[in-house]
Amino acid sequence: MKKILIVGGGGYVGTELTQKLLKNNYVTVYDLFYFDWLIKNKNKVKNSKRLFSIKKDILEVNKNDLKNIEIVCDLAGIANDPSSDLNKKYSTKINYEARYRFAKIAKESGVKRYIFNSTCSIYGFNKKSI
To answer: Which CATH architecture has domain 3-123?
Structure first.
């Protein structure tokens, strides 16, 4: 079993990924959980002794958070969200600076694999009918 940390695991993609990975791995979800992920999805991952969570802002990561972690799946970020337009400096800080820093600390902590994922919002909205 691998020890995997999912950054931004409280969103839709993170929730689905957590379910899949819990079958054969230890999973730590690192998120602020703005949307009450643990409450909404407790039935999906119920009774898992291999699930852990760190309720923390990505800006606050430190080496201790990544202790014994082998793989990081990075799903964090503000994507296609009106709040990103309201506070562009904060969005830049999260989407670029914090993620870069997180990857750097992961490397320094001995994480073997860092998987950087995009978002389903990357495709944007199609104005034409498909």
So the answer is: 3-Layer(aba) Sandwich (3.40)
